[in-house]
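Minutes, project huddle
Topic: does the predicted pose make sense with calcium ion bound?
PN asked that the exact inputs be recorded in the minutes so nobody has to dig through chat later. Recorded below.
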Amino acid sequence: MRKVIFDTDPGVDDAMALGFLCRRPELELIGVTTVHGNADIETVTRNALHLKDRFGFAAPVAQGSGVTLLNRQGSPATHVHGRNALGDIDVPEPVATLDGRRGHRMMIDLVRAHPHAVTIVAVGPLTNLARALDKDPEIARLVQGVVVMGGAFGAHGHTGNVSPVAEANVANDPEAADAVFTAPWPVTIVGLDVTQQAVMDAAYLDRLRDQGGETGRFLHAVSRNYRSFHQKSRRLDGIFAHDSLAVICAMAPELFTLRHGPVRVVCGGLASGQTIQKPAESPFPIGAWDPHPSQSVAVDVDVAAALRLYAETFVTPDRR
Ligand code: BDR
Ligand code: CA
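Predicted holo structure (C-alpha cells), as shared on screen:
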C-alpha cells in the first residue's frame, strides 16, 4: 500500500480524484493539504473538509498557502469550477476540523514520519511543495516520489489551457513549479498531454450516477456545471479527467508512457507557465536545463484502461 499526501485546490476534478483515491486499497491517504488555485484558500479548504465528511477519510486536512511563492494573489477559476469551486452544488458546513499545522509543515512532518514511503500527489499550484522544499530541502531525498497534475509539453498538440502555452496549475505559480521540477526528487508530470486525451463523456458520467451509488451521484452532480464549461469552451460533450489521472498514475504507472529529461518552467513574460523538457538524449550546448535532475513526463496513456479503472472503483459488480 502506497502512502499518499494529496495536495489539492478542490475544485470539481480534485473532488473526483479524491473520491477515487479514498476508494483504492492500493493507496493509503495520510494527509490532505490545500492550496490556492481553483478558488481562494478559505473556499478550497472548506471544500476539502466537506470532502473529508463526505468520503469519510481519517487523514488530517491542513490549510496551505493562499498566495503564490512570490506572494501574489491567484485568480480563482469561478467560470470553470463555480463560485464555491464545487460546481455550485450545496455544500453543507463541514463537521470535520482542520489540523493546526500549515500545509507545508504537515507535509514535511508526514514525509519525515515515513521516510522513503510517501508519494505526494499534487493537483493544484505547487506552492506548498516549493515551501516545504525551501524549509526542509532534505525531504527531497526522503519521499518515494511526487506525481503532479500540471503542465503541457505539446504531445498530441496539447500546449495549454489558460494560454496557448500554459496549463492552469503551473501558470498559477510558475516559480513554485520550477522549484519542484528542478529539485532532486523523482517527479512524474501528468500534464494536458495525457489528461486531455482522457475524456469522461456524458454516457460515462451518467453511468456513474446510475450505477455508482451515493458517491456516483455526487460525482455526477459535482461535474454538471464543469461539463457545461467544457461544452461551451471546447464543444466537448464531457470533461477532462485531469486530477484523477494523476492519482491513477500514482497507482498504475504502467498505463502511462513516460519521457525523461530535465524540466524547466518559463517564469514571467508572454509565455509564463510554459513547461519545457529537454529530452535526455538531445545534443544541445550546456544550458539552463543541465544541472537539474531528469524528470518523467507522461506523453501517452492507455485511456480506456484508465477510465475503466476509475469507473469500476465506483460501479460495483451487482450494480453493473
Ligand atoms: C488543472 O487546473 C485546475 O483547474 C484543475 O483542478 C486541474 O488541477 C487542469 O489544468
Ligand atoms: Ca486541481
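Observations noted during the meeting:
- Residues 11, 13-14, 38, 77, 80, 123, 149, 161, 167-169, 242-243 surround beta-D-ribofuranose (ligand 1) (CB under 6 Å).
- The chain has one domain: 2-319.
No decisions taken; revisit at the next huddle.
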